[in-house]
User: Fold these one by one.
Assistant:
Number 1:
Amino acid sequence: MSAGDILELSASAAAAAVDSGELSARELFETYRVRAAADRDAGIEGLNCFTWVADEVPAEAPPAPLHGVPIAIKDLFCVEGVPSQAGSRILEGYRPPYTASSVSRLREAGACLLAKTNQDEFAMGSSNENSAFGPVLNPWDRARVPGGSSGGSAAAVAAGLAPWALGTDTGGSIRQPAALCGIVGMKPTYGTVSRYGMIAFASSLDQAGPLTRDVSDAALMLRHMSGRDACDATSLHSASVEPPSARRLDGLRLGVPEELAGEGIEAGVLECCRSTLSLAEGLGADVAEVRLPHAPHALAAYYVLAPAEASSNLARFDGVRYGLRAEADDLLAMYTRTRHDGFGPEVKRRIMLGTYALSSGYYEAYYGRAQRVRTKIAEDFAAAFQSVDYIVSPTSPTVAFKLGERTSDPLSMYLSDYCTVPMSLAGIPAISIPCGLSDGLPVGLQLAGPALSDSRLLDAAHALEQAIEFDPRAARV
Amino acid sequence: MIERSEVLAVARLARLELSEEELEPMARELSTVLDHIATIRQLDLTGVAPTSHVVDVTGALRPDEPRPCLPREVALAQAPAVSADGFLVPSPQA
Amino acid sequence: MSENADAGAKGASDGAVPAAWEPVIGLEIHVQLATATKMFCGCELSFGERPNTHTCAVCLGLPGSLPVANARAVHFGLMIGLALGSELAPRSIFHRKNYFYPDLPKGYQISQYEEPLCRGGRLGDVRIHRVHLEEDAAKLIHVGASGRIHGSDASVVDFNRGGTPLAEIVTEPDLRSPEQCSEWLKLLRTTLRQLGVSDVNMEEGSLRCDANVSVRPAGARELGTKAELKNMNSFRYLERGIRAEIARQVEVLQRGGEVVQETLHYDPASDRLTSLRSKEEAHDYRYFPEPDLIPVAIDERMLARARAELPELPAARAERFQRQLGLSRESAQLLAFRAELGDYLEAALAAGAEPEPPPQALANWVSGELAGRLDEGADPASSRVTAAALAALVGLVSAKRVSVGAARQVLDKLVTEGGEDPAAIIEREGLAALDGGEELAAVVAAALDANADAAERVRAGNEKAIGPIIGTVMRETKGRADGGEVRRLVREQLGI
Ligand SMILES: [Mg+2]
Ligand SMILES: [Zn+2]
C-alpha cells in the first residue's frame, strides 16, 4: 500500500487492513510517525500539533481489534514515562509514573501511542493560543486558529498527521476545535470515560472523547475506552457503544433551540446548519423548534463553576513534588513565584476568577447561584427531550477566527463556547460533525441527546454524515 | 470594577504573585468577566436546588484492599529538591 | 483592649478557677482509623516505615489522580456514629477545604463539611455535635539549615501518613473542667478501642485532641470568646494546657481585658501557650463540594453490618456488671472502662472454678491485687496469671481455705512463675489455712501466754489490745490463719 493510500484510511479501515494482512502495523505506524515528526520538527512553520512524537515503532505486535492503529493523545493525559505537561510550563519535564485509564484501555484494544498533542494550557482556551508550546495553526488556513483546547488533536486529524486523536471537553474543547477543523468530535455523557490520569481542569465537567475523521471512528474509539473504572468514583456503567449503521432518520424528531440559533451566530454558519436540517428532513426526520430558556445563562454559570473547580485543582502545582519550582528563600515566595512563572495569563485569570467566586462572602452569590442555574439548564434539556429525540445547533458561533483576534478580550474568546457549554453543564452527550463550508472554512453541526444515549446519538450522526458528504481533503498536508 | 486591593487579596489566597504590570490588566479583565457573570444574579432561583453532580452514581466505594505503592525513588524522582528522606521545602516556620 | 496569648501565658496552671468564672470547653478529636489502606487510595497505612515509601499517585496528589473513598472507613464511621447514638446521614458529602501547606499535596484536604456522616449523639454526660470523615495530612520534619535551599531553614515532607483516614469527633461545649475533659476523653478512648476502629494512642498520634476553651461569668448563658488549643498529645498535657488557658483567660477578663479568638499551640516543655496564627491573615478555606467524589449513600445493608459488628460498649457494660454481677457502681465502671480488666473478669468468671468465687471479690482481686502487681495500664491477659488461676485462688479465699494474706503470697508466685493451679502452690508452700482445729487453738493459747498483759486488758474490755495477740498468731502461722477465726478463738479462750 502506498503512503498516500494509507493516509486515506480511517482508523477503522486501517485496523481492518492490518487485520486482513493488506498492511503491516509497522508500516502503518511508521507512515504516520514520520509525518508527525516532521510537523514537530517544523515547529511553528508546520501546524505545531505535537508536544512529543514517538521515536520508534512499537516492538510488539499490537493486539486486536485495533491492530496497532496509531493514536495521538492530548498532552492532558498522563502516560507513564512520556512527557505529559498539559501544555503548561509549570509541568516542564514532568514524566508521570502512571498511565491514564482511558489510554490504557485504548492500548489494550491495540492502539499505539503516536504522539502527544498540543493544547491550551490545562485545557483553558478556545483557540489553542494558550500553550507553553506555542499556538497550533488551522490546516484549512494557517493564519487561523484550530479552536481549543484540543486544538492539536483536531488539527492533527484534519491534516492527516494522525488517523485519530483523543481529546477532552470541559465546555466545548473537543466539539469546537472539531468544528473549526472540519472533523468529527464527540463529548460523551459525563462519566462514560474514566477521568483517572486526565489532568483535571474542572472535575465535574471534564470528559474525554474522540476526535476522528468520521462518526464510525468516533464510535470505535469510544467503544474501547468507555466503561466503569474503579479509579474514578464518577465513572459510569454504560452500555457498549455499537458501530453506527443508520442511513435514515425516519421518525426521529430533531429540536432546534432558538436560543442557540439566532443572535451572535454568523450568517454563514446558520446557513450551513439550515441546509443540513433540510437534508435531515429528506432522511425522514421531523425538525421542530424547542426552547432552552436558560441556555443564554449557561456561559455565565460555566465561567463560575469551571474556574472555581480549576482554582482548586491547580493548587497542587506548588513546586513541592513535581514540575517547576522558582528560586525562593521562604515558603510563601516559593509558592507565589513558582505559580507566577509556571502559569500562563489565561490560567492565572481563571485561578483568580475561581478563587474570587469561592471566597468568603461571595460563595452564594456566585458558586451557589451557578449551581442552581446548572439545575435549571439540566431541567430545560429534560423538558426538551420530552418532545424531541435530539437537539441540533451550530457547534461554534463562528468559523475559525484569526490568530490573535480574540486574545486581548477574554470574554469574546469565552463566547466561542456559547453553543457547547449548555450540554457540558447538563452532562449530556453531544457530537459535532462537519456540515459544510462557509467562506472556505468548515462549519460544525452539533447534535445532543439525553444522558447515556451516546450509542444512538452516534447512529443519528452517522446517517446525517452520509448525506452531507463533507470533503475534508483541502486540509490535508 | 474590582478593586486593586481585592485583586491582591485574591492573588494571595491563590498563592499567585502578580507583578505591578500584571495587576491593572488583571483587575480590568476580571471585571469584564464578572460583569458578564452578574447576569445570573438577576435570575429568580428561589427553591432551585444546586447541582454538584450531573450523574447519579452510588456505591462507588473502594474495598479496603492494599494496592502497590510507588517505589520511593519513583515517588521522589520528579521533585525539584529532595533530601535523603523526602521532599525538601523552605521551612514554613522560617 | 484585646490580648492574645503571646503576652505570656506561662505557668498559671496551678490556681483553682475563681468561683465567679465558669470554664466552657468543647473537644475536637481526630481519630486515625485502623483500616488496612488510606482514606482515598490503596496505599497501606504506615507505622514508622522509611519516609515516602507508602505513597502513590493519589496520595502524592499527582496530576490526573482521583480519590475513591475507602468502604471500611465509612463502615468504621458508621460504627462510631451508632456507638455515640448519632443520627446517620443517608447521604453525606465530601467537601474540599482549600489551603496551601507543604503537608497537603493537593492544596486542599478532602473533608466533610455541610453534610457529615453523623450528627448529634452523646457519650456519658457530653453531647456530640458531629462526626465526620477526612484525610490526614503528611508529616513535615524540620531539618534546620540546608544548603539545598539557599542556606535557609528547610523542612522535609514525608507523605507516608498523608491520606490516613480520620474520624473527627466534635463535642458540644459541655465540659467544665480540665479533669472532666481528660476523664471523658478516656471514656471515648475505651469506647473506640472496644469498637476496634482505632488504636487510639495519644502518644503515637492515632488519637489527637484539640480543645475550644472559653470562660464566662458563672451563671451566664452566653458563651465567651473561645481559643482553640492544639498539640496536647497526652492526657496530662491536655489537662495542663486547658488549665493554663482557663487561668490565662480568667486573668485577662478579671483585668477587664478581652479574649481574642485565636489558635494556640501548647508546648509541654515550657508549659506555655503560643499563638499560632496571630500574625497571619484569617483563613478562607473556600469549601465546595468535592467534584471527584459522589455522595456517600448509606443503605440498609451497610447499616446492618455496622450494627452487627457493634460490641458491648463501656457504659452498657458497666450497667450490666452492676445489674448482672451485683458489682458496686465504682467497681463496675472501673472494670468496664478499662476493657481489658472487664474482659479478664469475665474470663475468670467463666473459668468454672471450684469453689466458685463471688463476682465482687473477684472484681476486687482483678482491679486491685492483680492490676497493682502489673505495669500501669497493662493487660492482665498478657501476664502469667491466667484468669482460671486467679478465679481458683479467689474461690479458695472465699471458702476460707486460704487466708487473704497467704493468697497474696500465692498471687506473687503466680505473677512471677505462672501456673494453672494455685492449690498446688498452697500445698507446696504450706500456705493452707489453719482451719480452727487443735493446731490453731494451740498457737492461740501460746500467744495468749506470750502476751499476758494484753490478754488482761482485753479481758478488761479494751478491744484494741487484741491486735498484738492476733499479730503473734499470724506471725507464728506465716499468715495461714484466717484473721476472723483467730479473733474468735482468742475471745473464746479468754472466756468473753
Ligand atoms: Mg479536621
Ligand atoms: Zn496512596
Number 2:
Amino acid sequence: MTDRVVISPTTRQEGHAELVMEVDDAGIVTKGMYFSITPVRGLEKMVLDKAPETAPVLCQRICGVCPIPHTLASAEAMDMALGIEIPKAGKLLRKATLAAHNINSAAIHHFLVATDFVPEDKFVTAVDSVSEIRKNVQYVVDMIAGEGIHPSDIRVGGMARNITPFTKDRLVERMTALRPKLEAHIELIKNCVAESAEKLGIPEDLGVVNQPLMAVDPLYGSNDFDMDKFSEVLPETWYDDPEIGKRGCSVIPLWEGQNVETGPRARMEKYQGFKGKGVIAQHVARADEMLKNYDACLEALDAIDPAASARADYDPRGTGELGFGIIEGPRGTNAHMAKVVDGKTAFYSAIVPTIRAYDPCLSCATHVMVVDDEDKSILKNEMVRI
Amino acid sequence: MPLGTYKEAVSARSTDSKILDVSQDGGIVSALLCYAIDEGIIEGAVVAGTPDDDWRPIPTVVTSSDEVIAAAGTKYSMSPTLSALKDAVRQNGLEKVGVVATPCQVQGLRKAKAYPFTRFVTEKVNLIIGIYCMENFPMASLDTFATSKLGFDSLTEASKMDIGKGKFWLTKDGEDKGLAIKETHGYEQAGCNVCQDYVAEWADVSTGSVGSPDGWSTVLVRTDDGESVFKAAVDAGLIETKPMDDVKPGLPLLEKLAKGKKDKNTAERERRAKMGVRIPTIY
Amino acid sequence: MFDKLKKAFGGSEEPKPKVQKEVKAAAPAKEEPKAAAPAETKAASSKPRIGYIHLSGCTGDAMSLTENYDILSTVLTDMVDIVYGQTLVDKWIHGTYAEEMPEMDVCLIEGSVCLQDEHSVHELLTAREKSGLIVAFGSCAVTGCFTTYARGGQQAQPKHESYLPISSLVKVDAALPGCPVAPEMIAKTVVAVCEGDLDYLKPAMDLAACNAGCGCDVLTNVVRQGLCSGCGTCGLACPTRAMGYSEGRPSCDRDRCIKCGTCYVMCPRSWLPEGRIKKETGL
Ligand SMILES: Cc1cc2nc3c(=O)[nH]c(=O)nc-3n(C[C@H](O)[C@H](O)[C@H](O)COP(=O)(O)OP(=O)(O)OC[C@H]3O[C@@H](n4cnc5c(N)ncnc54)[C@H](O)[C@@H]3O)c2cc1C
Ligand code: SF4
Ligand code: SF4
Ligand code: SF4
Ligand code: SF4
C-alpha cells in the first residue's frame, strides 16, 4: 500500500512549489514529484517583438535571488544573437559581478537554512556573519553592475560603463579585508551542518542521486555547449498524474533525455575534484565554493583596466541566428536563448537551473532538495523532518 | 523667515586666484568643494559642468580640485544634476559625496534622503551646497537672449553669463552686454513659477551673489555639517569673510527678493490650484 | 485606519504564534487540509506580527529587506515577529505547515496577483481578512511593474495572462514602490511602523490606491502640468537607468522602463515631505 504525502507549497525558496511523495508501508518514499505552482508570468513571451536591450532588463526580474545569472545569461544570449564580441574589460566586470553574486547567494542560502542547522545560541552570530559577507560582496555588485539586486548596468555589448581606478582599488581593498571573515563563515557553517547532521541522525546517503552532472564551467559559464542535447517535456507528459500534469507550471528540461544534477556540488565534483554526495555534501560544496568565487572575484578585479572601454558598439538589427548565454548560477547552469530579427526579439527561451521557464529559480531547496530537479529521485522519509 | 533657518550670514570670497578667475561670484562653491575634497571630507562631488563650452549644463562627477574649478561658473539652464548622483556612488565608488544644488535640487535630494526609494545612494551625500536661484531658462531662451536681443551670432560666442544689477549679462571679447531682467521675464521654465525657495533653505550652506558686492558672495551657514566645513575653510585661509552688516546692499535685499519670490509663486500655485491643474502635494 | 494602526502597534495583547520548525505528520493529499489550526503557543507580545506574502513577484523585495545588514538580526529577533511567510518562515496556507493563515498586524505583499491562479487570489483575499494592515511591498504589488507587460501564452500555463496590482482586488493600506523597494526605505518604514509614526507613513498611505506606474508619469503629471524643474531626481530614482534627459526634461527610454513608478514617487514636484525634511535636518 502506498500513501501520498503532500507538502504544498514548499518553503524557504523563491517561488512556489509542491512536493508530492508516495510512501510505502515501511515509510520509505518511493517516488517524489516536485513541481512548480508559481504562476507563469511569461517572460519568454513578454520580451518578444521588443528591442534586444529589453530582454536583460525584464529577464533579470525572473528572480530576485538569482538576478545576476539571469541578466548575464540574457545579455550573453543577446550578444551572440547580435554577433557582438564584448571587450575584455566588460567580460572581466561581468566575471567579478557573478563571482561576488555567487558568494552573496550562498550566504543567503545559509541565512535561509540557519533555522535548520544553526543552534539557537549561534543564530544571531550566523545571521550577522551572513550580513557582513553580503554587505561586502553586494557592494561589489552595486559598484560594478549598478544595482545589487536588479543590476542596471550589465548591458548587451558589455557593461554600461567601466569602474574608475579609485573604485577598483576600493573594491580590491574591501575584498581583501573580507577574506578572514569569509573563511570564518565557511568554517562556522560547515561545523553547524556537520553537528546538526549528527544530532538529527541524517543518513549519509540522504539525497544521494546518480544522475549525470551538468556544469559547463568551474565558475562563470561558457557558450561551448551542445544545445541539441537539450529537450523539454510538458508536465502533462512528464508526470503520470494528470492532476499534477495540469497544475504544474513548469516545463521539464532534459539533457540527453535525462534529469541531471546541477549546482555547486555538481560543479565542484566536475571541476574541483570534490568528493561526497547527498544533502550534506551539497551544503559543504556550496560553502567551499564561496572561496573559489572569492578568488575569482579578486582575480577579475585585479585584471580590470579601468581606462579600457567596457562596452562594444553594435548593430542592434540582429543576425537572425540563435544566440545563447550559459551561465553557472549559484544553483546551477542557467541557459537563455534568443533570436533577433530586424531589431526585435523574435524568439526567447530560458532554461533555468531548477525547472525551466516558469518564474524560475525555485532557489534550491533547503529542506528536501539535493538536486534541483527532484523528480524521480528517491527520497527517504527522514528528510522531511530535517 | 524668507531666508529659512541659518546659523550665520556672512559676505565671503575665495582667496585663491585660480578659483576667482573662473568663478561666478566669490567662488565660495568651488572653494568649499576643493577644500572638502583635499581634506577628505568628501571624496568627490556632483556639479554642473559644460564640457563643450556651449553653456549646456551637463551633470558631472568631479573628484579633484582641478575638476571642480573646470566646472565653475553658472550656466543658466537646467542641469539634472541629481541624476548623476547614482554614477557618483556606483562606478565612481564615492562614499562621501558633495552636491551643488539649486533650491529645487536641494528639495529633491532632501526628499530622497527622507524617503530613500533608491538603494544606498543618498546616505552618502554629506555636503549639500545650495545656490540661490530666482529662475532658470531653457537653452532656447538663452539662444533668444543672445541672438535676438543682444545681437550675438550664437550663444557660444559668450565667454561669461551672469545675472546682476538688474540685468542678464553676456560677455564677448571682454565686453559685457546687458539685457534688462524685465525682458527675460516669460522666458524662464514654467516649473520655476511655482518655486517658493530662493535661497536653498534646506542646504548645508547656501550661497549666491545677492547682498554682497561684486566678486563677493553672500553665505548662509545652515547645518552643523555646513558650519564645520565652512569654518574650517575660513580657518585654513581659503575663504575670507566680512560681516553682512558691513557690506552693501546686505541682507535686506536678499530678504526682499526671497520674500518676493515666495509671494509671487505662492500666488501662482493658488491660481493653478483654482484652475484645477496639479500642484505638488505638501506633507 | 489611523486608529487601527495605532492599536496595532501600541502593544497588542494578541497571542504571539511561535514559529515552529518541525513539521508534523504530513496531511494526506486530496483531502483539503481544513482541520483545525494547530494550537499556537500563546505568549503576550508587543512586537508587531508580520506576515510576508509572495504573489507573482521575484523575491527581490524580500532580498532587499535582508539587506538591512546592520540591523537585520535585531529586527528579526527583537523588533518583529514574523508569523507568516514561505521564504522567511515555514508558514503558508494550503500547505502542511499552517492550515490557516494567522492573524497579522501587518502583512507585506510582494508581487502582482495573477487573476488566473486560484491560490494567489485566495491567499490575497484571505490576507485582507487576517491582517490589520496590508502593505503593497515593491512595485509589482503597487503598480504591476513589469508584469504589466505580461500577455500570457507561455508553457506550461499559457492561460496565466493577467497580473494585477493588488489594490485592484483588495483595499491596500500603504504602498512602498521600488524594484525592489530600497533597503533603507524598508528600514525607515519598519521604524515608523513600530513607533506609530503616522506622519512618516502618510505618503505611503496616500499611495495605497495606486495601480499603475510608468516613466511617462513624470511627463503627464509633472512636465505636462508645468511643474518640472529639471532637477534630475527622477533619474536618480530610476532602478533601470531608463530615465534620461533632454534639455533639462526627463526622457524615458521605453526599452528599459519597467513601469515601477519610482521616478514619479521620488519627484519633488509630485509631493514634498516638508515636515519630515524639517524634522530630519532641523531647518
Ligand atoms: C539657474 C541659476 C540661477 C541663479 N540665480 C541667482 C540669483 O537670482 N541670485 C543669486 O544671488 N544667485 C543666483 N545664482 C547663483 C549664482 O549664479 C552662483 O552660482 C553662486 O553665487 C555661486 O557662485 P560661486 O562663485 O560661489 O560658484 P562657482 O565657484 O562659480 O561654482 C558654481 C557652481 O554652480 C554649479 N552650477 C552651474 N550652473 C548650474 C546649474 N544650472 N544648476 C546647478 N548647478 C549649477 C557649478 O557646477 C559650480 O559648481 C543662480 C544660479 C543658477 C544656476
Ligand atoms: S527657480 Fe526654483 S525651480 Fe526654478 S531652477 Fe531655480 S530652484 Fe529650480
Ligand atoms: S517589484 Fe521588482 S523586486 Fe519587487 S517583485 Fe517585482 S520585479 Fe521583483
Ligand atoms: S522610468 Fe525608471 S523609475 Fe520610472 S517607471 Fe520606468 S523604470 Fe521605473
Ligand atoms: S524629478 Fe520631477 S521636477 Fe525633477 S526633473 Fe524629474 S520630473 Fe522634473
